[in-house]
Amino acid sequence: MREFIITVNSTVDLPKEWLEERHVPVLPLKYTIAGETYTDMSGLTAKEFFQKLREGHMSVTSQINPEEAREMLEPFVKEGKDVLHLGFSSGLSGTCNSMRIAAEELAEDYPEAKIIVIDTLCACLGEGLLLYYALKLKEEGKTIDEIAKWAEENKLHVCHNVTVDDLNHLQRGGRISKAAAVLGTLVQVKPIIHMDNNGKLQVIAKERGRKKSLNKIVDMAVEQSKGWENEIIMITHGDCLKDAEYVAGRVREKMGIENILINNIGTVIGSHTGPGVVAVFCMGNER
Fold first, then answer.
1. What is the H or E stretch that residue 145 is in?
2. Most-buried pick from 34, 169, 223, 248 (CB within 10 A)?
3. For the chain (length 287 residues), average pLDDT per consecutive 10?
4. How far apart are CA 192 and CA 284, in angstroms?
5. CA-to-CA distance for 163 and 206, rounded, in angstroms?
């Protein structure tokens, strides 16, 4: 059996050290803010990035193109390795399609190689959760085909429960109207968002006040995860660690899970959610 690796995009939003320890190659996306272009995971720190957003700067992201995707994948194929790529949701970016184009081109040049690209229909630590279990299966000796099959069968069981503090970023991204953003801000409405079956973010509810919205995303995770064995819960935040820690406490209390990974949301995903976002990711019932 040929050796294989699992690769991801930077939108996985796991700590860089976590990925390096597990030898997971990452192809980063880029973003431009205040006239400067940076690379996700190695550009601005989370605090620097979110401070710029708070100052009113807009961040514009760019997807991976097929040439960049090929440049990342080809060295592994040349070494005689197969590749399983867990891609950023096609509902949010054309990056996954670029990865597929690169994989098809490489398959022509290296017919002995196997390159599988999975459209995870996930984002942020939702991708991270899928990667966590894929790596576990790899450690157990599962083949690249077995892990790819598992990922396809379970990707819609990765539940994304999100709340944001600043409605203006959703409005800029076309998720809500400008009038709704203004009104919502005035009355302290906090939207509850999830990832739908097409890998797109959808506002599904609204809560009055921050604490209620944080409690709501935990309650959603509790309900979704019934009947599922969650080894780990992942929580992301947009430079609001105290809120993330509050949510982690509620997860421990209501779900009985101690293994919780908390990490700042990445700069590319954070460009669209703004500061103050908090999200809980778990395995559970279909979205």
1. helix 144-154
2. 169
3. 94 97 97 96 94 92 96 96 97 96 97 97 98 98 98 98 79 56 57 92 87 97 96 98 98 97 96 93 90
4. 18
5. 9
User: What pLDDT, on the 0 to 100 scale, is given for residue 206?
Assistant: 86
Complete edge-to-edge strand list for the sheet that includes strand 59-62 = 36-39, 30-33, 59-62
**CB–CB of 101/66 below 8 Å?**
yes
Q: In angstroms, rounded to a whole number, what is the distance separating the alpha carbons of residues 26 and 64?
A: 12
Give the whole-angstrom CA distance, residue 70 versus residue 65: 9
CA distances from 145 to 63, 85, 127, 151, 271 (A): 27, 12, 19, 10, 34
Tokens of 28: 């980063």
CB 268 within 8 A of CB 29: yes
Q: Beta strand 30-33 with 59-62: parallel, antiparallel or unpaired?
A: antiparallel
Q: Which residue has the tokens 């991801």?
A: 8
Distance CA 84, CA 38 (A): 26
The SS3 call for residue 226 is coil
CA-based nearest residue to 260, from 231, 284, 219? 231
Q: What is the pLDDT of residue 272?
A: 87
**Burial bucket for residue 265 (CB in 10 Å: 0-12, 13-18, 19+):** buried
- In the three-class reduction of DSSP (H, G, I as helix; E, B as strand; rest coil), residue 251 is classed as helix
Token pair 């197969």 in the structure block, residue:
82
> Domains in the chain, please, with CATH?
4-156 (3.40.50.10170), 157-283 (3.30.1180.10)
> In terms of DSSP bridges, do strands 158-163 and 189-195 run parallel, antiparallel, or are they unpaired?
antiparallel
And the tokens for 144? Answer: 């690249």
Cα distance between residue 51 and residue 47, in whole Å? 6
pTM of the model: 0.93
